[in-house]
Amino acid sequence: MQTVNSMNYEHFLDVFGNVVEKCPLVAAAVWAGRPFSSVSALEKNIGDFIDSLPRSGKEGMLRCIPDLVGRGTLSPESQRERSQAGLTSLTAGQRSQLSELNASYKSRFNFPFVICVRMSDKETIIQQLGSRIRNSPEQELQTGIQEVKKICHLRLLDISS
Amino acid sequence: MQTVNSMNYEHFLDVFGNVVEKCPLVAAAVWAGRPFSSVSALEKNIGDFIDSLPRSGKEGMLRCIPDLVGRGTLSPESQRERSQAGLTSLTAGQRSQLSELNASYKSRFNFPFVICVRMSDKETIIQQLGSRIRNSPEQELQTGIQEVKKICHLRLLDISS
């Protein structure tokens, strides 16, 4: 952690800026919490910062994440993760099922379906989407943010390994 | 405003995502506040959201803004604004003066000097930097955030004109 703790904020942002997709603000905010005793301590700071955001900010964080299929520019991290989960090799049927379910999900919750794809596979993702769409908006906001934290956890491990 | 109010969040983010530099989270958060009665109402929502951030979040917002000269990738908006203020045509002396002052500023406050360059010119910017560096961290955080709001104001006007 000595290397991390000695980084100025620009360097820290270059390295950790996308641990939460398209939200460099998060890394930029927690940098001031140095020194971190471990990667887990850094992760705890990130989690606490996310939790401190108002509801609108948490919803906004989800809206910055591109759809699982279709629209949106993917970061290199996101592209790699989605390819690993098999989302780049969907059958035409799976692709249209995922698109339709995700469109319904967005129109119900006003944010996209977010899931840590690296802890899943394409069949489970489609099944989860079909199931989570029946949750309350409150539950889904919480679940989406939990998934953001799981994605962040794995990205932090990648960087520090 | 009818056009703006009818935008889905993806479209809204494409258009307003960078009214606060490198913080699409802000536009993504306030989108839910539609319908907006006017551009001023939208701006008010953005200001309120910024004010609702914890101190670390406000500092993080400033850290996402590239230095006035030197390091950092500029958004097209930022590039245009800096060129208008004459920051791309500094003399060697002005450039080194600005660099040195900004380095001192960052080492004192842990965030960069932020100023709405379109409401200024290069001589005033250098003079302001030399003067603001003597403020307290609390004062500079507040001033920096006020400048972020001025930059946002002008970017909103550009988009809506």
TrEMBL record, chains A, B:
Pathway listed: Purine metabolism; urate degradation; (S)-allantoin from urate: step 3/3
Chief location of this protein within or outside the cell: other
Transmembrane annotation, as ranges: none
Keywords: Decarboxylase, Lyase, Peroxisome, Purine metabolism
Keyword presence, Nucleotide-binding: no
Gene Ontology annotations of biological process type: allantoin metabolic process; purine nucleobase metabolic process; urate catabolic process
CC terms in the record's Gene Ontology section: peroxisome
Domain of life assignment: Eukaryota
Domain Oxo-4-hydroxy-4-carboxy-5-ureidoimidazoline decarboxylase residue range list: 5-156
EC class (word): lyase
InterPro entries, A to Z: OHCU_decarboxylase, OHCU_decarboxylase-1, OHCU_decarboxylase_sf
Family: Belongs to the OHCU decarboxylase family.
UniProt protein name: 2-oxo-4-hydroxy-4-carboxy-5-ureidoimidazoline decarboxylase
Native species: Scyliorhinus torazame
Lineage: Eukaryota, Metazoa, Chordata, Craniata, Vertebrata
